[in-house]
Write a structure and sequence with these properties.
The structure holds two protein chains of two kinds.
Chain A lengths: L3 E4 L2 E4 L5 E7 L6 E7 L6 E7 L5 E2 L8 E7 L2 E6 L8 E8 L7 E2 L3 E5 L1
Chain B lengths: L3 E4 L2 E5 L4 E7 L6 E7 L6 E7 L4 E4 L2 E6 L4 E6 L8 E9 L2 E4 L3 E6 L1
Parallel strand pairs in B: 2-11
Antiparallel strand pairs in B: 1-3, 3-8, 4-5, 4-9, 6-7, 7-8, 9-10, 9-11
The chains are: A mainly beta, B mainly beta.
Chain lengths: ~120, ~110
């Protein structure tokens, strides 16, 4: 149980375009989902926390207008990177947690490359 | 916020030997400490965790210890195998948010 999937697993896009990444909890309902970014050989950095039906909470330094997060259902959250630039190239990982629980279940990640 | 430090950054061990990774955290209110294993190009995989009301936890070849007073926790891997080679991250949970250490690249030499 507690499986989280992401789609796509990798994406290449041109500079200036937008890219949407999906995060799904497959066998449980996740009231809270988290989005992380990981640059090569670095740790995971929390970008934002999203709760179903409400606006996401962004970490300091993360541009909310650039990284749009939608958590429309208890099993799906999406991250849209708007007007992507080469510096946005990274490994984006989502996680999900059960209500009132602190364990996070991570997805397999999405590799974004912006040309 | 929480600040987690992790050492060493790289660790090379002979197959069959033990590996130890240490982490410290800054906020005494943190109450949950998971350890993750990440293989290249994949998401983190939870390997063991410990809560603040427990001092030690073991699962087969993996164990974690927690010293709340000193605010540090450690991962111990015994009888290491080549498949243990990966990047390991410690994390501390505060207010349902995880703060991660910088990671330790473990290489098990055959």
């Amino acid at each position: 149980g507690a499986v989280v999937s992401q789609h796509p697993s990798w994406v290449i896009c041109k500079s200036g375009t937008s890219v949407k990444i999906e995060c799904r909890s497959l066998d449980f309902q996740a009231t809270t989902m988290f989005w992380y970014r990981q640059f090569p050989k670095q740790s995971l950095m929390l970008m934002a926390t999203s709760n179903e039906g409400s606006k996401a909470t962004y970490e300091q330094g993360v541009e909310k207008d650039k990284f749009l997060i939608n958590h429309a259902s208890l099993t799906l959250s999406t991250l849209t990177v708007t007007s992507a630039h080469p510096e946005d190239s990274s490994f984006y990982i989502c996680s999900a947690s059960l209500p009132g629980r602190d364990e996070q279940f991570f997805g397999p990640g999405t590799r974004l490359t912006v040309l | 916020g929480e600040n987690v430090e992790q050492h060493p950054s790289t660790l090379s061990v002979q197959e069959g030997d033990s590996a130890v990774i240490k982490c410290t955290y800054s906020d005494s209110a943190s109450n949950y400490f998971p350890w993750y294993k990440q293989e290249l190009g994949k998401g983190p995989q939870l390997i063991i965790d410990i809560r603040s009301n427990v001092g030690e936890k073991k699962d087969q070849r993996i164990a974690v210890t927690l010293n709340k007073t000193a605010k540090h926790f450690s991962l111990h891997i015994t009888e290491t195998q080549p498949e243990d080679s990966a990047v390991y991250f410690c994390a501390a949970n505060l207010d349902y948010k995880l703060s991660f250490g910088a990671g330790t690249t473990v290489t098990v030499r055959a």
